Amino acid sequence: MKKLFIIPALVLAIGITSCGNNAEKKDDTAASTSTETTTEAPATETVPGIENVTSSQTWTVEGNDQMQFNTNLIRVKAGEPVEITLKNVGSMPKESMGHNLVVLKPGVDIPTFGAEATAAVDNEYIPKSGLSSIVGHTKLLGPGEEDKITVTLEKGVYPYLCSFPGHFGIMQGKIVAE
Ligand SMILES: [Cu+2]
């Protein structure tokens, strides 16, 4: 796991010293949004930026008080178990800034699922009406807590999000299984 954190830090350090102009840095988030087409995404959709992500079967994602995941692209081998740990690294109370990580099946409509989740207050924002859309999910975590899930994915692109009300718009990412 250590390697995973050291390499991005090095790349960042080199980027800053050699370039020195952060304004020119490309915004990957904006780019991925603008390249989305109106057609329904097939399981084999190309995910921008995934070529820069190293494939691994063990991932740790952090959620913070700024309502952000620190990882938005996950790359795994299809057909093999993947361990995903979510850590809530924030300090705000669970009631106002709780986080979970819900892995959805390919093609699930995120706004629809998010709306159902928001209503599922009594079930930690895991909607019973949306269970068939879910591949796996962590518990809802308060500050300093963590939870781990293991999923095995067929080839495809799986959205993941935090289903705490209001979070999924920002707190979402994609798992590419190949
Ligand atoms: Cu959240």
UniProtKB/TrEMBL annotation:
<keyword id="KW-0249">Electron transport</keyword>
<keyword id="KW-0732">Signal</keyword>
<feature type="region of interest" description="Disordered">
    <location>
        <begin position="23"/>
        <end position="45"/>
    </location>
</feature>
<feature type="domain" description="Blue (type 1) copper">
    <location>
        <begin position="60"/>
        <end position="176"/>
    </location>
</feature>
<dbReference type="InterPro" id="IPR008972">
    <property type="entry name" value="Cupredoxin"/>
</dbReference>
<feature type="signal peptide">
    <location>
        <begin position="1"/>
        <end position="23"/>
    </location>
</feature>
<keyword id="KW-0186">Copper</keyword>
<dbReference type="GO" id="GO:0005507">
    <property type="term" value="F:copper ion binding"/>
</dbReference>
<dbReference type="GO" id="GO:0009055">
    <property type="term" value="F:electron transfer activity"/>
</dbReference>
<dbReference type="InterPro" id="IPR028871">
    <property type="entry name" value="BlueCu_1_BS"/>
</dbReference>
<keyword id="KW-0479">Metal-binding</keyword>
<dbReference type="InterPro" id="IPR000923">
    <property type="entry name" value="BlueCu_1"/>
</dbReference>
<protein>
    <submittedName>
        <fullName>Azurin</fullName>
    </submittedName>
</protein>
<dbReference type="InterPro" id="IPR050845">
    <property type="entry name" value="Cu-binding_ET"/>
</dbReference>
<dbReference type="Pfam" id="PF00127">
    <property type="entry name" value="Copper-bind"/>
</dbReference>
<feature type="compositionally biased region" description="Low complexity">
    <location>
        <begin position="30"/>
        <end position="45"/>
    </location>
</feature>
<keyword id="KW-0813">Transport</keyword>
<dbReference type="InterPro" id="IPR014068">
    <property type="entry name" value="Azurin"/>
</dbReference>
